User: What shape does this take?
Amino acid sequence: MTQTIEPRELLTSAELALYNDSLSEATLRKRTSAQLRRDLQRARQLRDKAQDTYRRQVGETRQRTGTKRGVHGTSNQRTREKAQILSATVVRLSEAAQQVAKTEQEQAKA
Assistant: This one.
């Protein structure tokens, strides 16, 4: 049985702040295009770091256990979930940045 882990149990305080901001549409609407781009860049870095850590752990598990996939029970589950949470954060921030950029372009034309 796989158990879902709460984001607050996986993420650092900085990661959790970025995650929570990405969930709040009101917060995202208040951000400028530059702020969203900065947040998006940071979220991508954090996602890439988590994905790299997961890949490294899978390789180590593969060596240690001799399994082909490198997955053994629930090993590496927390790191995988962290990478998935951060990937979803990147998607939300990317969509918000596109929307804000579009709005700023429309306001510039007017």
Notes: Residues 33-65 form the longest helix (33 residues). The mean pLDDT is 88. The two ends are 56 Å apart (CA to CA).
